[in-house]
Write a structure and sequence with these properties.
homodimer; about 300 residues; alpha+beta; 9-stranded antiparallel sheet; 5-stranded antiparallel sheet; 5 helices; about 15% helix; globular
Amino acid sequence: MLRRHGLVAALVLALPLCGAALADAPKARPSPTAKELLAKSSPGEWRTPDPANLVYMQLPQGRVVIELAPAWTPEHAANIRTLVREHYFDGLSVIRVQDNFVTQWGDPDGDDKARARKLGTAKETLPPEFTRKIDAKSTFTRLPDGDVYAPEVGFADGFAVARDPKAGNEWPAHCYGAVGVARDVGAETGSGSSLYAIIGQAPRNLDRNLAVAGHVLEGMQYLSAYPRGGEPMGFYDKPADRVTISKVVLAADLPAAEREKIEVLKTDSKTFAAIVEAKRNRRDDFYTLPAGKIDVCNISVPVRQVK
Amino acid sequence: MLRRHGLVAALVLALPLCGAALADAPKARPSPTAKELLAKSSPGEWRTPDPANLVYMQLPQGRVVIELAPAWTPEHAANIRTLVREHYFDGLSVIRVQDNFVTQWGDPDGDDKARARKLGTAKETLPPEFTRKIDAKSTFTRLPDGDVYAPEVGFADGFAVARDPKAGNEWPAHCYGAVGVARDVGAETGSGSSLYAIIGQAPRNLDRNLAVAGHVLEGMQYLSAYPRGGEPMGFYDKPADRVTISKVVLAADLPAAEREKIEVLKTDSKTFAAIVEAKRNRRDDFYTLPAGKIDVCNISVPVRQVK
């Protein structure tokens, strides 16, 4: 009645009960679920993120784990590491939540030069690492169904990416959970001291206009569920509404025992390809008409806890 | 410093200061903002939604306004109207929030036949109104940039839609804010007694597998910001976490003075076309590289309050 197992029911297997159904069985065979495919994955298909690229951001509701993307934005990754190590973010806040767009954090007093927190030894401006030259050595796995915004899309170096072979460049796409670098009007004004996470329909028009410095591996459910701000663009109108970031640390700076034990499925693995295909053509009793297509931003890279 | 006006800054106009810049001015002219375009719209470009299609759902944080879509799902619209008028939803709950997917509401005891609320005179099953035959008389406004999932996309009868001319059918797309009808495995098991709103990246693989019975005109910021549920698929594990729906009414059943005074921009209007074009090619000091493209689910149909 409730359809509790309705909307994304995929666990009920279709058991053919008559000859005709049996004859059709190979075609009607339910597609495996991501869970089933992941259970059969091999250890070598998983990567352990480099602790030097893992940022832990402590919010009242829990920990957010961000993986930096030095393969795409090396100077931003380095600057964010510096800011984290000098405790720049500790005590700052989520300052903005705009529905169907972004959650942004940083210094609420950042606009006020007298009161703004100092960046320490971090740089105040950085080169605009919005795209990179196509890296022939990277493990680009192209998706087959095209894209509205770019000539090609797929996954490379663990990130959802788009690329333009004619222009010779590629860039991480602003998909759900992408972490971008807020900036002023000038392209070089982003330092990484204020970051945003995408919380709605992928605003792909940001691609190539802002630097994607990482993506959220864990904790999106906190960043996406804060009350939307009352000011234009979702800034909080009342300081009391802001959510305080108690502490931000780099995994590499913690003893190994205190680090998150997580692994990320390699995007050039057979299991990842199988998950993409199962999602493109989901066949089970519930989904009677498989889409046969997939958008790059409809695929989440699996993350798992290990013991 | 804070980039408070950074991420989506569009209000700063580029004033050319030298001859060369002046010569380039037509090309570099900033695109108008949606706000500017809406300010110049004519009254005839707006429609007043039919009160018989407007559902007001009262949540603790505020009112959600849903426009039903009888042009697409007539039997579902009729059944939902019956459920609303017989107070089926009053006192029920938001029962499920799955991050980057859906917020679903209905009867928490719906799975328990003994305890489930009765549907009154509403039907328990409905024909699967997942698509309709292409309506040559509708005001389909096609978008120019294609789509990953369907041969054509655009707007018709006020909704973001996709269509397949070869198959001869069209359907509302599962974009952010779309309201769908939860169901069991059988295609006819949806009644409208449990509904969901899309709160993340458009899960377009739901298209043609579920009925889109409406879309949210106001109040998405409440539906999108509830804590995500702890059970699989985002169902709340603790009853106390559920959000109570105090009352659901049809606008048509309220005195005119108590109805929301809202208008919706017609999707076949010049102003809507101009907004789409400005979003496709956003040119201002902040966006240095216009996307030149737009996905159907990246366009929100403007809604305004009138006096």
